[in-house]
Each structure stands twice: as C-alpha cells, then as structure tokens.
C-alpha cells in the first residue's frame, strides 16, 4: 500500500514529465502568477495580489499547532495536484493556504473561528461572494465542491441572456398543456420578430424558442428539459469547449432555469 507521501511524489513527477514549465504557470492577477499543481502560500501582504483576480482561489486557513490541520495538509496538496488533472478545473481554480496564526486580521476578516477553515473565493467580475466550505474533507470532496462552484460561476455569467418577461412565458410553457404551450411560443416569436426590440433580447428570444420547439417534439417535454439541463451541465464541466461555445452553452443552460423554476416578483410574489 503506497503511503500518502509516495502518491504525492509520483503525482508531482508525472506532472513534471508531461507538462512544460510554462503550462504550469497561471496568471492570478495582473503582474502576479502562481504554479498549477502546488499549494499557493498566501499572507496578508500577498493575499490581495492573487485573490479576486482572473482565477478562483480555494483557500485553507490553518494553524501550525492544529492536529487536524497537519493531517489534512497532504490531502490539500493532493487536491492541488488534482486540479491540474481535471480539464474543467485546470486554469480555473487554485488551492492556497494561509497561516492564520501569523495573519490574524486576515483570518478574522473572513470569519475564521476554527481550524482548518476552507473558503472559496470567486474571480473578479463575479456576483458571487466568498463561500465557506464545511463538507467532507477528502480529495474527491474538494474536487466536487470546486467543480460545483465553477459551474455556478459559468451559469452566473450566462444570466445576461435571461429576460424576465421571457422567463415568465417559459415557466407557463413548461407547466401548460398543448394550447397553452402554443400560445407561449407565439408570444416568444413576437418578441423575436419585433424590429423595435433590442438585438440582445431578440437573440435571447430565439434561444427560448428553440428550447420550446425541441421540448414539444419530445415524448415527455418535462423530462426533456431536465435531461437537457444535465447534458449542458456535463458539457460545461468537461473543459473541452472553446470560449465561444462555452458562452453559448452557459447562456442556454441559464435560460433553462426559466423553464424549470417559477419566476417571482421582488418579495417572492408569483406572477
């Protein structure tokens, strides 16, 4: 049975042999870089140079005297390596750590009251806030959480394609029968074909309409929408899409939520 140290050693060796040095460097912020596959060590001086930059940072706050922190250290190192192996996470998420004993003000700022504490920091431009992670602490658990946050970030970007009024029509389409669905599709077509409507709204209407058309051709429209959601989520996580295709898929995936969840007025009032 290989030890944790030997597993990490062979992971490091394998990545060193298969990757060029420049492939392992990633820009975190303008003028700052980090090495993929390694745990980025941060302190009060370097924290702002990397966090809330061009890449998500998953930070472990620890204390040197903490026994569990010592046990989790090799797991966190292995997680950092795993981020290189996962196509959907490479160049998107970095593992980092902060010695909270030496950076008490920084730890306090992010609500660290026990050790280790894990906080996921999204990149700049995201509407999401730093999120504490309190789940299981195996490598696969950290990978799963990082993947879920990365998917959420992509969907957050895709929300620009959502239109409140079209979300209402999409929900009624999903809940209605044959005649109601035809009526909702007619209304979406009117938006798409309206010359006075902004180009972005007409483009969004086309995406809503395509989902409606595919849905009514399916034997079970509701099941189609759920399966399409799962399919698009897999595509987003695959890491195989070009930037242009990723933008298209995330927009479509975000619009799907309009079909699957009722759009509410401010205050939670249904239309």
From TrEMBL:
Reactions the enzyme catalyzes: Catalyzes the rearrangement of -S-S- bonds in proteins
Domain Thioredoxin per the UniProt entry, residue ranges: 15-151
Keyword tRNA-binding on entry: no
Keyword Ubl conjugation among record annotations: no
Enzyme class: isomerase
Residues making up the signal peptide according to the UniProt record: 1-21
GO cellular component, one term: endoplasmic reticulum
Record keywords: Disulfide bond, Isomerase, Redox-active center, Signal
EC number(s) given by UniProt: 5.3.4.1
Gene Ontology molecular-function annotations: protein disulfide isomerase activity
Pfam family, one: ERp29
GO biological process: protein folding
Family: Belongs to the protein disulfide isomerase family.
Name recorded for this polypeptide: protein disulfide-isomerase
Organism of this sequence: Tetraselmis sp. GSL018
